[in-house]
Amino acid sequence: MAQNVNFDLSHPAVEAGLESPADENVVHDSFSQLIAEQSQNEGLSDAIELQHLQGNPDDDEGRDNVAYLSPSENRGWRIGSDEAAEEDNETQTDSLLKDRWSSATLKILSSMPSRTIGRSRGAIISQYYNRTTELRRRTQKRASIKDFSRSARPSIRGYGVEVDTTDSAEKKQERLVKNLQDLSAVDRMRMLKEMPLNLSEKKDLRRLTLEMTKRTRSSSNLPCCSYLKFQIILALRHSWYSCLSFLHSLQLWQMPLKRVGGRFGSGVLSYFLFLKTLLFFNVFLFLVLGSFLVFPQAVYLPELPESRTPFTGLELLTGGGYFSNTLLYYGYYSNHTLPNCPKNNSTRPECDSRSLSYNMPLAYFFTIGLSFFITCIILVYSMSKSFGQSFRIDKSNGMLAMKVFCSWDFKVIKRSSVKLLSENICTQLKELLGDTHHRLVRNTILDKLIKLLIHGLSWTLCLGATAGCVAGIYCFSDYMHKKQESSENDSEDPGLLNEASLLALPVLVSFINLMLPILFQLTAWMEKYNSPSLRTFVSLSRNLILKVSVLGVLCFHWLKRVAGSANDDKTFKCWESFVGQDLYRFLVIDFIFSLLDTLFGELLWRLFSDKVLKRNRRPGFDIAKNVLDLIYGQTLAWLGLLFTPLLPAVQILKLLLLFYIKMSSVMMNCQAPSRPYRVSQMTTIFITLLCFPSFLGSSVCVTYTMWRLPSSGSCGPFRGNKTMIQAGKQRIAELVDENRSLSFLADAHTYLVENPLFLFVGAAIFLIVIYFQSQVVDGQRKIIALLQEQIENEGEDKKFLITRLQSVHERKRTPARNLTSQDSGC
């Protein structure tokens, strides 16, 4: 309210510029000197402001008002606010408002640094002239001031303020320009940024400094070599800055992400940022697997069967047929050292004993393990970093003030960029205001019981539908497995029809993943959540339960049923390649259903709404469903690293197409949320879900396959071994036999690879890192809360001291007033 007098200690003018906390005496001296300078140089303006206060002492009580503490242009508003408050008959509880302000108190308060920072330009120039002089003296001894204490905001307080009141403002400015000229470019820009002047005055100081520097350089007689060296340095610096600007412009999808963030807010933007993160993960996996597995095998092709299946086009959907004997699958890779040199044939040049060899089984094993290990490190680092960024303490009021006053980029001059930046800031302000105005609705006990009943029915319906669909997938996968076993024994069954029937299970799973989220949306609409972010998190948890349950059933199908038939060569001659083909089919069919969802769920609904209903009711973008679809597809890609080394390439193509399709659909067919909300922790939740349910489950399945499941005896790099891990053990034993000095490799393999304790220790270290990061963030949050409370207490202390000073002044003024009244009576 207008009656409350708040001392804003977080104002930029109150904080120190370069001084350390130990310079308190210097700070207080600067206060007194600054007040003295103002009283001499700007006495006229102070006299104009206070002339009505220094009249008849009897009129002090009527003229003293809190409104005089504010600038003159704001007094009318404050007085009007006081009148409105008096109409409401509100009681004044602030101790500062109970007493009348005297002219002496007002004069002291008007001379406070926080109230003179914007008025005395000459004092500011004198202040920073002394600072630049001191800084120039220090730089004579030390070339840089990087080690100096630094503050985020400037202040007129600083080192000793040696104010020379005899000089004019022009001379002060000229001396300041000379001092700025002698500083380095970094120190000069830093000093200009810290000056509490407006932008035009800073530009004038910078322009004068540059002009003086140019005149100095032109007047000085530089030798030809020095001038040439100076021009080369300038050209190199300009080239470096141009290169940095060009690299910054090459950031992937920079403008589309700004556009969607400005129109739809941080919630929809988090989906596309998460898609971009997954793209980088898959590019890394493709480079690693392509360099150490695909490329060596492509150079030395294995012996192919004489009769190969011709290409029919159906392979693009099923992944079988012609693609079965290619670099795409596990069964194509060799189980010997490259190049393959028979013992009776050593005439080939690559079979020379001095040439380098490449052990494909060992490379396959350690490349897959290294890919998962590096991915785990990147995920843990990203998650810990995201924890520190999103779970910081940030009050909506403070963020709102920063966004209003500090968010505009004055370097933006292009019309489209200005429009995009203003749209982005407007959306962020709406989100912050939505958080500020959000209030909990007080419900009666009956309303709470009704809501609890609706929530219980909704969760029962969602969990029951999920359990029923998962049971259906389990039964149908068992049926398809038995049919596949029978079709392998039936030679009369046409191969093309049999290959097309393999699409039935992926189509069923993708159809369930498409339809059940619609049911989740309907139940969320029935529940009527007050908070849009809470609704998003509930939908995210329901979709997560669905995806995890489906993937669990599929992993059981592949690792138990399909791998369990490995002993029967008549059923699956190469079960690893069959699982790889199944993962390829699931990934492709999931992409097709995503396109169908975009077509029917967004495009056709928008056309129906515009053409038939004649209403602007476009569909909203379902963040939870689309994000869980991305996590589902990435889990399939991680599961397929062992069975399909080129599956990351397929995932990269899918993500690229999905980005442009979803971006176009969102911009044309979807509408922004009717209630904007800020999702500050959404990216952290996405990374966490990607790490623990997705990556952890994929790592467990791949580790179980390599350690426990039997390898196929007719294909792949691990044929002839009982399990995949035995290939590494066998190769290390061969190296130890050839060279006894390498016996430490056998011990390292035994204790680090075969022993699961190492994996548990590594996982425990990663979890400890995440825990400590979260604890550090929590401690910072508590410290910030304590500091904010301390600032509020200091403000209350200042109010108390000013009130006591006012009371003392009133007691001293009362006897003088009584004497005046007695004299007038006489």
What labels would you give this structure?
disordered N terminus, two-stranded antiparallel ribbon, 29 helices, 826 residues, mainly alpha
Note down, in words, how this protein is organized.
With 826 residues, the protein is an all-alpha fold. Among the domains are: 269-303 and 312-338 and 358-485 and 497-720, no CATH class; 721-754, no CATH class; 759-802. The chain is 69% helix and 0% strand. The chain has helices spanning 24-41, 43-50, 60-63, 75-87, 95-98, 103-110, 113-116, 121-141, 169-182, 185-194, 199-219, 224-249, 254-264, 266-299, 315-318, 360-390, 396-406, 415-437, 445-489, 495-501, 504-527, 532-564, 575-611, 623-639, 647-669, 682-707, 725-738, 743-754, 757-825, and strands at residues 337-338, 358-359. The chain starts with 23 loop residues before the first helix and ends with a helix.
